[in-house]
Design goal:
single chain, alpha+beta, five-stranded antiparallel sheet, 13 helices, 59% helix, globular
């Protein structure tokens, strides 16, 4: 064996050794990420939404190329009625797993509900249907997107196709009825909506939240935003709280000056309910944030630290709470950026 061959052999052994050394670290990192995912799922199941979002953020930092993290966090955002934030996570999942029709359909659905990047939503829905032509769910979601775009003929066709694949779907029946009303077949559309709601009366409220009334009326919803624009503003109120453990009264909102109470008798109650009459610090997502002073009746309060509306105590417990809040709201900060 030549000296060059000896050197190459030693180099190969070193590469193998380094690989063996790196493997346990990678395994440990993956195990830690799985543990955080399980922690997040359990927290969400228990209604500890703030804890779940913090765990998802830590999991994303540990293994940023795992699409499960973004899919599961997006699903949580959808359950909390934040499709704008869900769409950002579904988009990340699609980048990592572009061949998955379910992720594509979910991206389309969340973008349509948020009224954001409707062209991108259509591309995602088309991709989902292309990859799974028998998915009545993907086709129905594209039907809703067409309603959002006022493309009534395309909406009617998609809902009709979806119903042909799954005739017993009240949701698609409702959407089909809406499309028919806007195409001029008002009575037929109303009859179909009546049939859809016969055993599913909650559909009326669900579709009202999506921007459509049972008679075809279009309700005001979120302002349309285009691709490249932030999906939300730091001025929009976004409150994450654990179910049953935090109340609105313990979270400082309304960063501006409080309106004067109706009478002097209401003064004390108003002050108790709205201690944040004036805040001299920062306001983010409708919550007071940073260091500043609360002012009551012209008297300065003590310098206080708030993180996304929560008063942070000194010491380790306060720092742990602040870190959890910062992790949970990190995704909002990213979504509000350019």
């Amino acid at each position: 064996m030549t000296s060059i061959q000896h050197r190459l052999s030693r180099l190969a052994l070193r590469v193998v050794a380094l690989g063996l050394l790196a493997q346990p670290a990678a395994v440990a990192q993956d195990a830690a990420a799985r543990g955080l995912l399980e922690e997040a799922r359990q927290a969400a199941s228990d209604g500890r939404y703030l804890d779940a979002l913090a765990a998802y953020a830590e999991a994303a930092a540990a293994t940023p190329d795992d699409p499960r993290i973004y899919e599961q966090r997006a699903n949580l955002f959808m359950s909390l009625s934040h499709p704008d934030l869900a769409s950002e996570d579904y988009r990340r999942a699609v980048r990592l797993k572009p061949d998955d029709p379910v992720s594509q359909a979910n991206l389309c659905w969340s973008l349509a509900l948020a009224n954001h990047d409707l062209d991108g939503a259509l591309a995602a829905c088309n991709e989902a249907v292309k990859r799974d032509p028998a998915s009545y769910d993907a086709i129905g979601k594209r039907g809703y997107l067409h309603l959002r775009r006022s493309a009534w003929t395309e909406a009617e066709a998609d809902f009709a196709t979806s119903l042909a694949l799954n005739a017993a779907s009240p949701d698609e029946m409702f959407g089909h009825g809406l499309a028919m009303i806007h195409l001029g077949h008002e009575q037929d559309g109303r009859d179909e909506i009546a049939s859809a709601t016969l055993d599913s009366p909650g559909l009326v409220n669900e579709w009202a939240a999506r921007g459509f009334g049972a008679r075809g009326e279009i309700r005001p919803g979120p302002a349309a935003t285009r691709a490249g624009e932030p999906v939300l503003s730091i001025k929009e109120t976004k409150l994450f709280a654990n179910k049953g453990t935090e109340s609105y009264s313990s979270i400082r909102t309304s960063c501006g000056r409080m309106l004067a109470p109706a009478s002097a008798a209401d003064q004390e109650g108003a002050l108790n309910d709205h201690a944040d009459i004036t805040w001299s610090g920062e306001c983010r997502f409708g919550l007071i944030h940073g260091e500043g002073k609360l002012t009551r009746n012209g008297q300065d309060g003590p310098l206080t630290r708030y993180v996304y509306g929560r008063e942070i105590a000194t010491g380790e417990p306060g720092e742990l709470q602040a870190r959890k809040l910062q992790l949970a709201y990190q995704v909002l900060e990213e979504a509000a950026g350019p």
